[in-house]
Amino acid sequence: MAENEQRTPKVLVVDDDPRLRDLLRRYLGENGFSVSVAENGQAMNRIWLRERFDALILDLMMPGEDGLQILRRLRAGKDMTPVIMLTARGEDVDRIVGLELGADDYIPKPFKPRELISRIKNALRRCGNRNLLEVGNLEINADSGTVTKNGAELALSALEYRLLLLLVSNRGRLMTREKLLEDIWDVAGDFVNDNTLTVYIKRIREKVEDDPANPTVIRTVRGLGYRVD
């Protein structure tokens, strides 16, 4: 559709250097991109739940969850958003590991902003935006915000959708109850307690599981949290 082709590409920059974040926000914004920024993986997750992006600019070395861990998590969840890795380290091993994990490109710091723009455009041409996540007979289209089961669209509330998307995006990784409460309800701004999460997981299972009493999509890790395999 011509209208979609002409829309402004959305880019998320994740880097713990505030000066670089500000520079890239201004420079990319002046050159035809809609730019959001995050200082670490946790801040990125909150933005990622609310919006979809055409490309991710991801710093390799960050405190907490580093760029390679974030990239591994995204690709494990079948999120194929184009990712360009930034790093102050220029060793070949870092580049190889990043590309093997599914990065689309790799730029060592320091770099010229004009080169980054060229790399982003090339990644968008090669990859497009393919945010389709699949788990068993479920498909989550992160572009349209829809969930289908065996081809039929499911009716999920906005909060149910965000919770399911967070779990599936972290496929194979234990998501503790504390982490889910922090990432989901901190965004929603609602007053919640631990029982709130239990209620929402039950509601989602009733919609996505073939047998909600014996779930195979959202598994309980007793005493810890939940995991999607």
Task: Give the structure's gist in a few sentences.
The chain is an alpha/beta fold and 229 residues long. It contains nine helices and twelve strands.
Would you spell out the secondary-structure blueprint of this structure?
Blueprint: H1 2-6, E1 10-14, H2 18-30, E2 34-38, H3 41-50, E3 55-59, H4 67-76, E4 83-87, H5 92-101, E5 105-108, H6 113-127, E6 132-135, E7 138-141, E8 146-149, E9 152-153, H7 158-169, E10 175-176, H8 177-188, H9 194-208, E11 218-221, E12 225-228
Parallel strand pairs: 1-2, 1-3, 3-4, 4-5
Antiparallel strand pairs: 6-7, 7-8, 8-9, 10-12, 11-12
Helix pairs in contact: 7-9
* Percent in strands: 15-25%
Give the topology string: H per helix, E per strand.
Answer: HEHEHEHEHEHEEEEHEHHEE
What is the number of helical segments per DSSP (H or I, 4+ residues)? 9
Distance between the termini: 35 Å
Main sheet makeup: 5 strands, parallel
- Report low-confidence residues grouped into runs of 5 or more: 1-5
In which range does the helix fraction lie?
40-55%
Average pLDDT rating: 84
Radius of gyration: 18 Å
Going across the biggest sheet, name each strand in turn. Answer: 2-1-3-4-5
Large-scale geometry: elongated
Total beta strands: 12
User: Structural class of the secondary elements?
Assistant: alpha/beta
